[in-house]
Amino acid sequence: MKIEQIYTGCIAHAAYYIENNGEAAIFDPLREVQPYIDRAVKDNAKIKYVFLTHFHADFVSGHLDLASKTNAKIIYGPTAKPAYEIISATDGQVFDVGNYKVKVIHTPGHTMESTTYLLIDEKGKEHGIITGDTLFIGDVGRPDLAQHVIAELTQDKLARHLFHSLREKIMPLSDDLIVYPNHGAGSACGKMMSKETTDTLGNQKKTNYALNPKMSENEFVTAVLTGLTAPPAYFPANVLMNIKGYESLDAVMKKAKTPLNPIEFEAAANETRALILDTRTAEEFAKGFIPNSINIGLDGNFAMWVGEMISDIKQEILLVTTLGSEEESMVRLSRIGYDHTIGYLDGGFASWMNKGFETDTIDRITAEELEKSSNFEETPIFDVRKKSEFLSEHLVGATNVPLNEINSHLAEFPKDKKFILHCAGGYRSMIAASILKQRGWDNFVDVIGGFETIKNTNLSKTDYVCPTTLL
């Protein structure tokens, strides 16, 4: 069967493309749809359907733009009632794509409209299942997201729906089916996904904790709900955009692609409430940046941290990027619904410096330099990793302020003495550093390379705490 997984690693997302006899279908497309159109053109095929497994929370789907550009029909499973025209398929309904068949299997649990699509080849053989967020490799979709949009859909209710969907709809299927999930490791839509992005259903029945046939319904609910962290703040906003509709990406990009010279950029920053977002690397940002700008680098978990740290999805944004990364920054913002970029600094940060405008820097030290100044009573150290990372291993005397909680813990950072910041590798601590700079702190240094480099010093033999020591 001709099926392609189109994987986007920065948000751990998988879309799917199938084609047969001049007809094609796309499953769970991203916001930028031209690559899917180009793929169909390559096969001399017409995109007939856009299938959605559910109303996505972690990205804005490209179904509306794709349907508008290709006249494809949008397919959702039962109970979906968006504010635009769709085919709301019934459980068991079959759609033809060339000589292939796509069978609808309603699998509520992650959300109520969640649907799995069974792929059947031209010979009538069942090939695989596109599972959306119902079944991942090594995990299942978290059932706590829908309650942030519809309060009565409690996580307990959805977890019980998911239990029955898996037992009654998925597990009876053939072991040789290939499982094609919507996400891989790194997505916030699950908690322990494998790095593998496909597997056989038979192997998942053997290895996926959620498919253990001996597990009772109550045991399943406990297992699925245990260990869930709060979802990123932008998730409910993305769900609503996918339900209600949104402005076309072409229109969003037209507004965003406004080059501003330094004088125009400074004027726009002063005359609007726009946030200056610098998407360069931590290393580049530390050497020089526009005062009051926030650093969230494209080279890390950009979408997740934009969603965590920029609370208003309608926030106007002015971009500073490395040369050539302007459009990528805009697209990656719009993937998660941040559609209000109003321009970018033409020529990058160098053009700002060349104009002689004010700049700022972040002081940084190496792990070896930290080792020489490790009296944490004299110089406090703040670890901005997740709580679970901190509890696993950390420096004795360090204070844990997770990055996503920094705005509610600003009072913990001293203003009367120097302090030190670090995360795991330097990406998150630079976000924290930029926020602290914006809020008026200037009495700190950032550890280059973070905790991974600290472990290679003598601090790991003296002040380093690991799980056995914690116990």
From TrEMBL:
InterPro entries: Metallo-B-lactamas (IPR001279), Mito_Persulfide_Diox (IPR051682), POD-like_MBL-fold (IPR044528), Rhodanese-like_dom (IPR001763), Rhodanese-like_dom_sf (IPR036873), RibonucZ/Hydroxyglut_hydro (IPR036866). PANTHER family: PERSULFIDE DIOXYGENASE ETHE1 (PTHR43084), PERSULFIDE DIOXYGENASE ETHE1, MITOCHONDRIAL (PTHR43084:SF1). This is MBL fold metallo-hydrolase. It comes from the Bacteria. The keyword Transmembrane helix does not apply. Residues 270-361, 375-463 form the Rhodanese domain. GO terms for molecular function: hydrolase activity; metal ion binding; sulfur dioxygenase activity. The keyword Phosphoprotein does not apply.
